[in-house]
Amino acid sequence: MTAAGLKNNSVHEISSIANSNLLVRMMEMGVLPGKKISLLKKAPFNGPMAFIIDGNILALRVEEADLIHLKAE
Amino acid sequence: MEIAERLGTRRIAIIGNPNVGKSSIFNQLTGLNQKIGNYPGMTVDKMVGYFHKGEQRFELIDLPGTYSLLPKSEDEVIAHKVLNGQGEEKPDAALVILDACNLERSLLLGTQVMDLGIPIAFVINMKDLAEKRGLSIKTFALYQAFGVPLVMTDARNNEGLEEVKSLFTDDKFVVGKTFHKPDSPELLEQVQEKFGFETPYQAFQQLIFSSFDPTLAKDKKVWLEEKANAFHFDPEEQQTKETTERYKKIDALLEKSVLSGVNKPKEFHGKLDAIFLHPVWGYLTFLGIMLLIFQAIFAWAEAPMDLIDGTFAFLSSWVVETLPPGVFTDLLAEGIITGIGGVVIFIPQIALLFGFLAFLEDTGYFSRVVFLMDRIMRPFGLHGKSVVPLISGMACAIPGIMASRNISNSKERLITILVTPWMSCSARLPVYIILIGLTVPDEAWMGINLQAIALLVMYLFGTVFTLLGALALKFIIKTKEKSFLMADLPIYRMPRWQTVLLTMFNKSKIFVLEAGKVILAISIVLWVLASYGPSGRMEAVEAEKMAMLEKATDSEKDEIRNIYASKELESSYIGILGKSIEPAIRPLGYDWKIGIALLTSFAAREVFVATVATIYSVGEDVEDELTIREKLAKQVHADTGEKVFNRATGFSLMVFYALAMQCMSTVAVVYRETKSWKWPILQTIFMTIIAYLGALATYQIFS
Asked: Which of A5, B14, B151, B465 is the least buried, fewest Cβ under 10 Å from its Cβ?
């Protein structure tokens, strides 16, 4: 499962981030394996998603959230 | 003397993540003592500030906010070039601002700067928030690990700033311990030698930045590429590796030096986000805020703009009355003073828009807008951040285009800049009102005034063309940059008025100093063209006028002056130009008089009204639009007896003004924002062609 499939009110742990040219950018913004991630809000019509990671709110588009792989429960 | 001053000045760069309070510290140290300059070959502004204590003088370079020193946008390239002294003078030291709540992320950048071998000091800002979160930071443990001084601050509340100042005055900046050793030491050694770098990490930086730095010499680029290939140095892979390794070390270190004690989760201001990010309330709130801003630029700016207008008109007539008559007086009164007035007139709108934007940005609301609007703007090749430039374009394109600054993707930024002038700005309003009054009957249709509907149609027309234009440009402009959205939504905070006021001041200053030069130059050229003609012709008209005036009774004099104002304009260079383009504009339904108005109103759209009033001898001082309208309605073509401003011509003119550039200030500001003449020139040509075709089609349909 990736962060794009996250539902409200569930906290997951990031297992890995898919390799892409956004990888370094994600890492430097604090999206790192082992961090807890949860969904705060989704913009309508499949718009951006706002996640809470490490106490910060980060807005990502769905295809970017799809790069973040989560640990199975 | 200046050199002596420079020698005694210590130059210090300030760097930190976005939203870390970097500008706040910069502003509090330097206040109004700031200067805006350029980085050669870059579009990002260079912010430099000064402060002194006793004999000691300091120059502070406010580097753009970045998350790392890895190449992504111009921001990082500039940080790299300055901190390594590549094409930019290297500062004596660097002040790194860290976020007390996000030390892990901040230290990624912090340790990178440290490894460049430049003397540094750390400022851990926002300690108040960290305390609220229950974090306790053991500064001494951090100091031992890095070997560089650390100061804790809460810059918003002025706490710890004296200690920051003493970092400067007591010169406490030191070179830290090497934190991370990059791979391939042999390769780095060669690069170090070639570029004269002190540390291997500087060489590493030069390697990963070589393909991103537009100002790096070609031979050096090739050399770096060859070396990287020879040593199998893959920049992408190396950056991932570096980031991972740095984080590992930082984590290990923070485990020992930061106690997360109570570990209270951050207070989320959840109630605000529940409204501001809500699928319904979020958009309604945003719409409300935008309406308020729009109203402000549109209406609140009017009084100061009238005041500026009046002041410059007064100055101009004062000069005419005071100085002896002659070419110089005319140039000063009608060319230069009027030209400067045409620049200053934009300040209220620019200051108001940027005041609001700085306010919204400082409270943390701004990035929520990006979150809300991104989905809507994306299909048109625009970014969530494009929405503010476009909406402010409905008041005036100038501040709108200046507000496109924070769109980081260069393609999305360029598209935004290129299409914003199509939004229906307030300068089009007088043109629309006159033409609608002439051509649309003042009747109600289903209870709604037809003229009001026509005006609304013109606004929608502009918006539709803006979006269609963006859509077309999306397929035309090529880029290798991938569009993405990765935005921190910072917690809500009270805005700092100092920041808001400084932004208003700085943006107005940038506009006056940089775009102002171009506007002044064009307006002087236009003035010369409209006031002078081929030798003899103007003088003949002038002499005739004098003769007529002498014979005339007082009641006739005004009438004569109006007639001759029209004749003078007709025999000027611009009048001759207007006549010569008549064959080209005939199919649009325009005569040579309208042709002259098209040329003069390149200065600004609203000039159309004044020129038409002059050329049809309505009189220069007509404030009342109704009078102009009545007189214009009576105008007929001499040869056919047809009305000049019939419906087809009126609609055709409105379409022309909706789509043509017709605003030298926009040209100037596009030049200033893209730092090249290529885009404003292409933009003007294309807008004019599209306007011509649009007006042609409109005229043919309605005639």
From this structure: A5
Q: How many other C-beta atoms lie within 10 A of the C-beta of residue B703?
A: 13
Q: Rounded to two decimals, what is the model's pTM?
A: 0.83
**Higher local confidence (pLDDT), B687 or B564:** B687
Phi, psi at B67, each rounded to 5°: -90, -15
What tens digit of pLDDT does each residue of B275-305 get? 999 999 999 999 899 888 877 777 788 889 8
**Residue B45 bridge partners (DSSP):** B38
Distance, CA of B202 to CA of A37 (rounded, Å): 35
Query: What ipTM was estimated for this complex?
Result: 0.94
Q: Which of B240, B277, B371 sits opposite A23 (nearest CB)?
A: B240
Four-CA torsion B192, B196, B202, B208, nearest 10 degrees: -70
Long-range CB contacts for residues B678-685, cutoff 8 Å, separation at least 24: B679/B414, B679/B417, B679/B418, B683/B418, B683/B421
| DSSP-assigned letter for residue B495 | P
C-alpha dihedral, B425 to B600 to B522 to B41, nearest 10°? 40
pLDDT at B5 over 80: no
Half-sphere exposure of B417 (CA within 13 A, CB side): 31
- Nearest residue of A to residue B236, measured between CA atoms: A21
* Residue range B49-70, pLDDT digits in tens: 999 888 889 999 999 999 999 9
Q: How far apart are CA B585 and CA B695, in angstroms?
A: 10
Model confidence band, residue A2 (pLDDT cutoffs 50, 70, 90) = very high
Task: Give the count of beta carbons closer than 10 Å to the beta carbon of residue B534.
Answer: 10
- Give the integer Cα–Cα distance in Å for B447 and B456: 15
Q: Of B609, B581, B605, B608, which Cα lies nearest the Cα of B595?
A: B581
Put simply, whether B105 touches A (Cβ < 8 Å) is yes
User: Which residue in A has a C-alpha nearest to residue B367's C-alpha?
Assistant: A59
Shortest Cα distance, chain B CAs vs residue A6, angstroms: 17
> Chain A partners of B487 at a C-beta cutoff of 8 Å?
58-59
Q: What is the DSSP letter of B635?
A: -
Q: What is the 3-state secondary structure (H, E, C) of B21-85?
A: CHHHHHHHHHCCCEEEEECCCCCCEEEEEEEEECCEEEEEEECCCCCCCCCCCHHHHHHHHHHCC
Pick the range with the lowest mean pLDDT from B81-90, B161-170, B239-248, B622-631.
B622-631
Selected for mutation to probe chain B from A21, A39, A42, A57 (highest B CB count within 10 Å) is: A57
For B169-185, write each residue's pLDDT tens digit. 999 999 998 999 998 89
- What type of residue is B676? S
Contact B538, B567 (CB under 8 A): no
CA B105, B108, B110, B111 dihedral sign is positive
Tell me the two tokens of residue B308.
């500026």
Mutate to test the interface with A, among B371, B378, B385, B408 (most CBs of A within 10 A): B371
For residue B621 the two structure tokens come to 């001082």
CA B60 to chain centre: 23
Contact residues, chain A, for B279 at CB < 8 Å: 43-44
Lowest average pLDDT, out of B269-278, B434-443, B634-643, goes to B634-643
What is the model's pLDDT at position B123?
Answer: 96
Residue range B230-256: average pLDDT? 92
Tell me, what DSSP letter sits at residue B333? I
